[in-house]
Amino acid sequence: MKNYYIIDFDSTFTQVEALDELAKISLENHPERDNIYKQIEDYTNLAMDGKISFRESLAGRVKLLNANKSHLDKLVSQLKKKVSRSFERNKEFFKENSDTAWIVSGGFKEFITPVVTPYHIKKENIYANTFKFDEEGNIIGYDETNPLSDEGGKVKLLKELNIAGRIFGIGDGYSDFQLKESGLIEKFFAFTENIARKSVTEKADHITPSFDEFLYVNDLPRAISYPKNRILCLIIGDVPEIAVHILKRDGFSVRIKDNFEEKYTKDVGLLLVADGITIDDDQLARADKLKTIGYLGDAKAHISKKICTEKGIVVFDDKKNKKRNSEFIPRRMADFINNGDTYMSRNFPNLILPKLTQAHRLLHIHKNVPGIMAQINNAYAENNINIISQFLMTKGDIGYAVTDIHTAYDKKLIKQLKQIDNTIKFRILYK
Question: With contact defined as beta carbons under 8 Å apart, do 64 and 131 qualify?
Answer without folding.
Answer: no
